[in-house]
């Protein structure tokens, strides 16, 4: 099932969506993105890894480890709304270049089937679309006075993080996929928590 549009192209109708509806759209989009990462991760384990022993040797040092993320639901519920929003956007920005590189790498190697290559491209596009969607949520929250307008530059990658971090270039495809699956799950959970803190009357 295709995720609903999350207003990435400036559609005029998006201005009339409620904050709860905007949250629902980005949460649905993040769930779809995490689902694709799960599918690809399973395909890698099944088809591309010669042995289970190799799985254990994959580096667990993700390039996003320097982004301080709340550990567990209770901690995510305690930090400021602005801070949780910033964490979500930082994670999305950090994956912009690595996922494009990951897709390019898959497209150039014959051992990866067409379906897997298409999924990697879809993930890369979805990260970009989700960041734009979360920016729309931020703008709506600022308009309603829910969060501070001091977060005006949150959507700008340059103000958040240098995503061209050399660390991710040292990771193999499976390592990148492992880390993205982990981070996409965090993004989805943080969006759900943020929604329930701000509009708890809508499906929480």
Name the features:
single chain, 204 residues, disordered N terminus
Describe the protein in words:
With 204 residues, the chain is mainly alpha-helical. The protein is built from 8 helices and no strands. The protein has helices spanning 19-48, 52-57, 73-78, 81-94, 96-107, 114-143, 157-160, 173-198. Helix 4 (81-94) packs antiparallel against helix 6 and helix 5 (96-107) packs antiparallel against helix 6 (114-143). It starts with 18 loop residues before the first helix and ends in a 6-residue tail after the last helix. 32% of the residues are buried.
Approximate strand percentage? under 5%
The low-pLDDT segments are 1-5, 157-164
C-alpha termini separation: 23 Å
Number of helices: 8
């Amino acid at each position: 099932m295709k995720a609903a549009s999350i207003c990435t192209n400036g559609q005029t109708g998006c201005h009339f969506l409620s904050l709860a509806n905007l949250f629902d759209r980005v949460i649905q989009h993040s769930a779809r993105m995490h689902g694709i990462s799960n599918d690809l991760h399973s395909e890698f384990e099944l088809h591309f890894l010669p042995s289970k022993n190799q799985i254990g040797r994959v580096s667990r040092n993700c390039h996003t480890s320097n982004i301080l993320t709340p550990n567990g639901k209770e901690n995510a519920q305690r930090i400021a709304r602005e801070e949780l929003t910033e964490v979500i956007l930082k994670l999305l920005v950090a994956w912009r270049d690595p996922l494009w590189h990951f897709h390019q790498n898959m497209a150039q190697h014959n051992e990866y089937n067409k379906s897997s290559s298409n999924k990697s491209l879809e993930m890369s596009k979805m990260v970009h679309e989700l960041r734009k969607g979360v920016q729309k949520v931020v703008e709506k929250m600022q308009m309603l006075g829910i969060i501070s307008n001091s977060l005006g530059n949150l959507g700008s990658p340059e103000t958040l993080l240098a995503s061209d971090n050399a660390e991710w270039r040292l990771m193999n495809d499976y390592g990148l996929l492992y880390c993205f699956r982990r981070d996409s799950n965090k993004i989805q959970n943080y969006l759900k928590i943020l929604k329930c803190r701000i509009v708890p009357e809508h499906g929480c």
